[in-house]
Specification:
The protein has one domain: Globin-like, CATH 1.10.490. Helices cover 61% and strands 0% of the residues. The protein contains 7 helices and no strands. α2 packs across α6. It is globular. The structure holds protoporphyrin IX containing FE. Protoporphyrin IX containing FE (HEM) binds next to α3, α5, α6 and α7.
Length: 145
């Protein structure tokens, strides 16, 4: 499976397509949360760790939960994020953090490393690709520097 990273430019917001609902349906909530957990653990030991609350375990755990809540919601699962945090307003929520194209690429590379595991576990590669495409494009919106 080729998970290609599209070049991102600050201020350019390409149209986003939500992940295929089959992705969340096949992966299931437990495995989905593990995916986000694994992603944050890769971040923890990376050159973009400084952006995240790595020095406070409670905050780091909460950050994982918020991210999973959002991604589950956008993938067609329960609206956890709206319930717990309100309107997503993702661009605004990322505004306090200095996210450049390098940070975005690193963030995406960690998903590119983890998603092939799902293919081995039997998840439909087309569903995985649709989740990837969503992350690849929507992450461009988060670039703010
Ligand atoms: C599709 C792309 C992305 C999605 C869906 C996403 C989702 C989220 C969510 C849901 C939160 C929690 C917000 C809250 O509850 O207030 C969050 C926080 C955050 N995200 Fe993203 N994000 C994306 C891309 C990125 C990228 C590319 C970076 C840069 C490396 C990034 C860095 C951060 C940081 C630093 C936080 C704050 C962590 C904290 O202090 O709690 N995000 N993101």
């Amino acid at each position: 499976m080729e998970l290609k990273i599209t070049d991102g430019v600050m201020g350019v917001r390409p149209p986003v397509t939500k992940p295929h609902p089959g992705f969340f349906h096949q992966v299931g909530e437990e495995r989905f949360r593990k995916l986000v957990d694994d992603h944050y653990e890769l971040i923890r030991n990376s050159d973009i760790a400084f952006l995240f609350p790595v020095n406070d375990e409670d905050d780091f755990t909460q950050a994982k939960k918020n991210a999973a809540d959002f991604l589950i919601q956008i993938s067609g699962g329960h609206a956890y994020f709206n319930e717990n945090r309100g309107e997503p307003r993702m661009v605004g929520r990322h505004a306090p953090f200095r996210i450049d194209e390098h940070a975005r690429r690193r963030w995406l590379e960690f998903y590119a490393k983890l998603l092939p595991e799902l293919e081995k576990e039997g998840i439909n590669p087309e569903y995985i690709k649709s989740f990837w495409d969503y992350l690849d494009i929507f992450s461009i919106w988060m670039i703010n520097i």
